[in-house]
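My current task is to audit a protein record that another person submitted. What it holds is a sequence and that sequence's fold in token form. Thanks in advance; the entry in question is below.
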Amino acid sequence: MSGSRWWRGVLLAALCALVYYVSYDHGRDSQRPRLEEQERRFLEERNRLWGELVNLEARLARCLAAPDEEEATVGRLGLRVNQSRTLFDGRLVLSVLALDSEAGRVLVQLNFLREGRQAAEELAVGGSLGFSLGGRDWAVVVDSLTLTTANLKLVEIKNGP
């Protein structure tokens, strides 16, 4: 009797292994379309982003190659009161010392570290503080103000032909 129990146990284990293998293989096959759809979406998104990058590179090249423009925006900065940003490889520190969003005014300070000089001016929205650095002319323009942040643009002033 114990021999037949043993064979029944072996057959039951083999049957369980066969059921597990068939269900595993079926599960793997049923996941294939979902994985292929995810891969297709990923490739579409990658191609879309690649095309957008190419367009942005072309726009940047046009902006940099346009010598007839009098100024070109180099960067945008959002600074809070008593916040500073180091620019031009540590040669300039731009700080916002005070901000009055109701009056639309901001106090901007420039610290020229290598020259040891400072320039500060209270500016309205749209106002600018010009300066020269590295033989080029620049301006900090107040783009907009929120309750706590001054949004500034760093603009290179180009002399036309």
